[in-house]
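Q: How would the structure tokens look for this protein?
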Amino acid sequence: MQKSEKPIPYHFNDFLDYLDIEKGLSDTSQATYARLLKKFFSWLKKNNLQDLKPHELTDEIVWQYRVFLSRSLNINGEKSLKKSTQNHYLIALRNLLIFFTQKDILSLPADKIKLAKQAKEASVKFLNLDQVKSLLSAPNAETITGLRDKAILEAFFSTGMRVAELTTLNRDQIKINPLSKDLEIGIVGKGNRPRTVYFSQRALKWLKKYLETREDKEKALFINYKGPKNAPRRLTPRSMENLVKKYSVLAGVPVSTVPHTLRHSFATDLLNKGVDLRVVQEFLGHRNISTTQIYTHVVSKQLRDVHRQFHSDKELGE
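A: Here is the predicted structure in token form.
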């Protein structure tokens, strides 16, 4: 290890090159790291530490930065930063220190960056099959917007796609083969990870009905029928979130239902039917199996409840 005589912010561009070339992160991820680290650099400058060398960074300085984050307000200036948000900034700093280690630059070890303790996250929220059926039946498919919304809801539950993935689909990706009962297409999801998603026969039927009503030349698969003529017509993630909430109320399912709830429901349904966890991982496009394992806790709880209900010790006596 060698000491760098250059201040920490001087290494910023080299760090971004490292994320790009060696870590293979997307432009979006690189931009996120850049934004998070700039807060640290701004804090250094505000505290006359802009000339701090990597090997001069101490536990005490990191602690002072953590205190600053804990006292910072969110973007609206109304509340303190969430613990999870504070951790995003700390993780960015930790990765910068990992970069220094990779480049044999003497610095504070990355494991010295301790993350803020977070409250236990809420369990995964999903709908059971009866609730899914109620939600899918809520749109009035006799209207053009209702038919579109019906196709959207069916697509969500059939594919397990993220809302951002579904909104980016184009009409030319939906190549309906009259000889095939279902449809599979390739998409590029979160983290630039390519995967195949599958539309069931039921979802494909509603997609086909919806597309048969389209007389426009818009590229987007799902479009907005309201607003100025010259405005972009592709439905936004926010629009899809709003329509899911709308039909959640009509269907009488939990009002907290959002597009991601259908993704959770898709994964939980597969696991309940005995699909292997790694197969579900592929369906969802998760990079790590640990991300998918959150759903096993849901399924395990259901199995435990069934066991308690139908396999009672009371029947055996004391």
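The domain at 129-309 is CATH 1.10.443.10 (hpI Integrase; Chain A).

DSSP finds 13 helices and two strands in the chain.

Upvote if useful.
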